[in-house]
UniProtKB/TrEMBL annotation:
GO biological-process terms attached to the record: mitotic sister chromatid cohesion
Keyword Transferase: yes
Protein name (database record): N-acetyltransferase domain-containing protein
GO MF term set: acyltransferase activity, transferring groups other than amino-acyl groups
PROSITE patterns for this protein: GNAT
Annotated Pfam families: Acetyltransf_1
Keyword Nucleotidyltransferase included in the entry's annotation: no
Keywords associated with the record: Acyltransferase, Transferase
Origin superkingdom: Eukaryota
Amino acid sequence: MAPVITNSTRITLVSVTNDTLNDLIDLHSRVFPIAYGQKFYDEVLKAGELAKMGSILIEHIIETLRKQSDPIITSIYLHVQTVNEAAIRFYTRNGFRIQSVVPDYYKLIENRDAYILARPIFHIYESDERRQQPQQYEHIF
């Protein structure tokens, strides 16, 4: 059973079970350039409900950063291989946007170019006083 996402803030997590394990293996092979053996997936089965954990963690980090007072962090940045389409989809679904390309970023793997992605912590329309920080902290998308 796939995770159910509605218009509310609730997300239903689905356990990784023997019935859903092949879906996880397929997803993992599309997202990560490294193949893992059966032992890895056996451990995942033991771990339980991990679906949507990445998105949940990103939102938790952002909510934590929004509560910080000094200095104000306005954006989160990350890098991803330009050929890693699944990771790019994941991050764009989670509010990140491609900012630039860094040629030859990765030295030890093929397809060395990286995208730099960024996600603002505050929405442009927020009137929160925390957005009134000095210009050097601003990053405009």
